[in-house]
Design goal:
Number of helices: 9
Shape: globular
Strand order of the largest sheet: 1-2
Distance between the termini: 29 Å
Structural class: mainly alpha
Order of helices and strands: EEHHHHHHHHH
Radius of gyration: 17 Å
Strand content: 5-15%
Length: about 170
């Protein structure tokens, strides 16, 4: 592994580490090493999606993957979104949705704002105005599923990043 410096927030630098590829020794295959846990996360993922619009699901997963810098999941979910008919234009705007909010419905914006807050929960928690905005567009069951979806994609991002999964190597 090599360490380099990268800029963050245009002011500070933090060490960045180049990770090994999936085929490099040293990183485990999570699904094979912890199959019950892996199946449990798959079950949570499936349960979280139930009743949510598939387009919204992909937008949330793409946004969290952007924030977590998970190329593996970002590639997977943009591919899935394209297969589901999502436009390239909207896919490109997810990363900057605050500045390009006119590309997304009010409901999608509320879900993306909640995704931002939950994914970055250590920064400021989930502000009441973000939660209330989401609660205005989602009934209690939908909101619970949306929260579960956000928690699940954050878990998947952490699994993929921790095990050095490479973008484009999934079997989809």
């Amino acid at each position: 592994m090599t360490t380099t410096e990268i800029k963050t927030n245009d002011r500070t630098t933090t060490p960045a580490t180049t990770v090994r590829s999936n085929s490099s020794p040293g990183r485990l295959d999570f699904a094979k090493s912890a199959p019950k846990v892996f199946r449990a996360v798959i079950g949570l993922d499936a349960a979280a999606r139930a009743g949510l619009d598939p387009t919204l699901v992909e937008l949330v997963q793409i946004r969290a993957s952007h924030l977590n810098r998970c190329a593996y999941c970002l590639h997977m979910h943009t591919t899935d979104a394209r297969k589901a008919g999502e436009s390239e234009e909207r896919l490109h705007m997810v990363a900057v949705w605050h500045e390009a909010d006119h590309f997304f419905t009010e409901r999608e914006q509320a879900a993306l704002a909640l995704t931002d807050a939950v994914t970055r929960i250590g920064d400021a928690g989930v502000p009441d105005e973000v939660y209330d905005r989401a609660a205005a567009y989602f009934d209690e069951e939908e909101l619970a599923h949306l929260l579960a979806l956000i928690l699940t994609i954050n878990t998947w991002n952490r699994i993929a990043l921790s095990t050095a999964k490479r973008a484009g190597t999934d079997e989809r």
